[in-house]
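FAQ

Q: What does a record look like?
A: Structure on top, sequence underneath. For example:
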């Protein structure tokens, strides 16, 4: 099979490698595609802790495709089933997944791409945020995740204030149901605008979906007394400082909405399958760029550089 191997910072080779064989409790997937995650960008840049070359297919974890072979003890899945998977070497034509880490895709989703891991993350973050009708929600960072959360929150009856850097993202937020949008330019101007929009009380929930220090600082400033600050951004580039005086004074509840239990990931993926198959959620317009496997490097560069009109890249096989 063909698989991508990172050979150094910003360097990828597509190699012919042996097709993996499923062990007990595993299935082999013939992949249709894999989403490109922003968490790939730090390894792509070449931090000191990164080791090269990577395993074939490494970093890819947003895969969907067909069951191609099953290992011993598999029940409930058959060769030919179309599924979404939580697997970890999916920048390749085939990958292995544990049977309890795959979810069947219904006929209603036939032919549609389905990067299940980020879709499941959105559902899990939304559930942990405890968003209700009548609340005011600020979402900082309208990328793929922020756009999905804007739609989920607005459909739940919340008033969403979307804050993002790019005009494209703010236009998208309005299409996804945001009641208000604010350009992410001036820290104090944003605070004053949100204060004005909320009558001085600020927001019931603030979701930080960027993964950088400034948006985290801003999130604390926008959370009302006894509100909830939800950290959805992936902070992988170093330690963070927080304004503990402010967090203490306002009595803010801080929720780190990252999951590590595969069962919770899969639960979110099941919720995403149900929501999209039923028509309650339609992410199709958010998949803005598609690349073949041998252009994975371009997909990663686009994810890093975010050209106008870019939101989410898929690699298809």
């Amino acid at each position: 099979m063909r698989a991508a191997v990172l050979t150094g910072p910003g360097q990828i080779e597509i190699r012919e490698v042996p097709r993996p064989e499923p062990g007990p409790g595993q299935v082999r997937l013939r992949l249709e595609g894999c989403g490109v995650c922003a968490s790939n960008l730090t390894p792509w840049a070449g931090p000191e802790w990164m080791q090269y070359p990577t395993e074939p297919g490494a970093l890819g974890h947003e895969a969907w495709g067909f069951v191609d072979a099953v290992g011993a003890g598999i029940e409930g899945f058959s060769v030919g089933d179309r599924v979404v998977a939580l697997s970890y070497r999916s920048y390749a034509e085939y990958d292995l997944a544990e049977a309890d880490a795959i979810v069947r895709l219904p006929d209603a989703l036939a032919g549609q791409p389905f990067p299940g891991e980020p879709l499941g993350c959105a559902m899990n973050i939304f559930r942990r945020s405890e968003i209700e009708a009548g609340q005011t929600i600020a979402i900082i960072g309208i990328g793929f995740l922020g756009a999905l959360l804007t739609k989920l929150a607005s459909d739940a009856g919340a008033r969403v204030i979307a804050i993002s850097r790019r005009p494209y993202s703010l236009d998208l937020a309005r299409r996804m149901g945001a009641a208000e949008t604010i350009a992410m330019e001036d820290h104090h101007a944003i605070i004053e605008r949100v204060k004005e929009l909320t009558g001085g009380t600020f927001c019931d929930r603030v979701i930080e979906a960027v993964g950088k220090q400034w948006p985290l600082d801003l999130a604390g400033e926008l959370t009302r007394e006894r509100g909830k600050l939800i950290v959805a951004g992936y902070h992988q580039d170093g330690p963070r400082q927080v304004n503990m005086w402010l967090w203490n004074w306002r009595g803010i509840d801080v929720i780190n909405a990252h999951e590590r239990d595969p069962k919770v990931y899969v639960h979110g993926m099941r919720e995403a399958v149900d929501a999209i198959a039923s028509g309650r959620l339609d992410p199709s317009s958010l998949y803005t760029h598609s690349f073949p496997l041998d252009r994975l490097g371009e997909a990663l560069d686009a994810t890093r550089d975010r050209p106008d009109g870019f939101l989410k890249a898929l690699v298809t096989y």
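Q: Is there anything notable about this one?
A: The first strand starts at residue 2 and ends at 8.
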